[in-house]
Specification:
Blueprint: H1 8-11, E1 28-30, H2 57-67, E2 74-77, H3 79-91, E3 98-103, H4 108-115, E4 119-124, H5 125-130, H6 133-140, E5 145-149, H7 161-170, E6 176-180, E7 202-207, E8 220-223, H8 226-235, H9 243-252, H10 255-280, E9 285-288, E10 295-300, H11 304-312, E11 314-321, E12 324-331, H12 335-345
Parallel strand pairs: 1-11, 3-4, 3-5, 5-6, 6-7
Antiparallel strand pairs: 2-8, 7-8, 9-10, 10-12, 11-12
């Protein structure tokens, strides 16, 4: 009976398959682009009988200091995924409007759009990276939101900031360019946040899940100018951030914690270069995509090698990419985890 009540877009929806959706077992987890560094925090929770601040002032101020923005430009969300949902709910009319994405890219853009009955104009990463802005503008069509994952997941490719600026300028009054910077801490010089001083149609998605090593906290930020964020503030839930989450996020954004995060990012970037060297020298690997982020995406000669890694206890993320089933994304882990990848690569074929 309940199925008959479902709208078609939900009945036909294919749910996003996250790295944790499958009940896998292993000892080395390199499938979800998580940080290998666990942190400890101090919590005093003697006021849980009271509702939290809708937008915790201490956290907002701390993130403003980190991102060099003002409070009117920062909205705290439940992961970057809520930022995606909020932008669609605010700026797209169900059954009428559309978004544009450049595939292959992060799968939640499509899931969020399908959930809300928003059409998807699916373009290619090649178009985004290689075409002139005028051609991209034309291809975008009437899309209200244009999602640019930068660095892109799963390819790691980067869209130059000057191209994002030119695209935003060409779409003024027509669309919002949404720059997803989940991995930007691994290449901070490529952030689009500096463009907010010149553009009211750019929104930037951020998260504490990756470089800040807080994937379990589900905390993100939507960054934009006040004119863009004002209507979003009408749509967001009244108490989106729990008291516990706010307390942890505030500590994670202290100056000492940010310094520690940057040291860890430097270490992970170094581990990534070592991993790429291993992959480029392995007969199991036919292609390694060069890109940014805390992961490396590669093509295997034989996709059965993924099963061999799982039997060893090393869990990585298989992908269907560019028409092939033999692609794999490896998150950057610590030295011990990198050693497990080396052992897998050196197993006889």
């Amino acid at each position: 009976m309940s199925e008959s009540l479902l709208p078609n877009n939900i009945a036909e929806l294919k749910a996003y398959s996250s790295a944790k959706s499958e009940k896998l077992t292993g000892t080395t987890w390199l499938n979800a682009n998580e940080s290998p560094y666990a942190k400890e925090f101090q919590l005093s929770l003697n006021n849980l009988n009271r509702y939290p601040e809708p937008q915790p002032e201490n956290v907002i101020n701390a993130y403003c200091s980190y991102a060099q923005l003002n409070a009117e430009q920062v909205l705290m969300t439940r992961g970057a995924d809520e930022g995606i949902e909020l932008l669609m709910r605010t700026y797209c009319e169900s059954g009428v409007d559309s978004i544009a994405i450049f595939t292959p890219t992060y799968g939640m853009y499509k899931v969020s759009a399908d959930t809300q009955n928003i059409a998807i104009n699916e373009l290619s990463q090649k178009l985004l990276l290689d075409a002139e802005v005028s051609e991209i503008n034309e291809a975008v069509g009437k899309a209200k939101l244009v999602f640019v994952c930068n660095p892109n997941n799963p390819t790691g490719s980067l869209t130059p900031i000057n191209k994002i600026a030119a695209l935003a300028k060409s779409l003024e009054g027509k669309a919002i360019v949404v720059v997803d910077e989940a991995y930007i801490e691994f290449c901070p010089e490529h952030s689009a946040v500096s463009l907010l001083q010149d553009f009211n149609n750019i929104a930037v998605l951020r998260t504490l899940s990756k470089a800040f090593a807080l994937a379990g906290l589900r905390t993100g930020f939507l960054l934009a100018n006040s004119s863009l964020l004002a209507p979003v503030r009408k749509v967001i839930a009244p108490y989106p951030v729990s008291t516990a989450v706010a307390l942890i996020a505030e500590q994670a954004l202290s100056s000492d914690s940010v310094t520690q995060m940057r040291r860890q990012v430097s270490t992970l970037n170094g581990n990534k270069e070592r991993l790429k060297t291993l992959l480029n020298g392995s007969p199991k690997v036919t292609q390694v995509l060069s890109g940014e982020g805390n992961f490396v995406t590669l093509q295997l000669k034989d996709k059965n090698d993924i099963d061999a890694a799982m039997q060893q206890g090393t869990i990585m993320r298989p992908f269907s990419l560019y028409g092939g089933e033999n692609w794999l994304r490896i998150s950057i882990g610590n030295e011990q985890e990198l050693e497990q990848v080396r052992l897998w690569l050196e197993q006889p074929e």
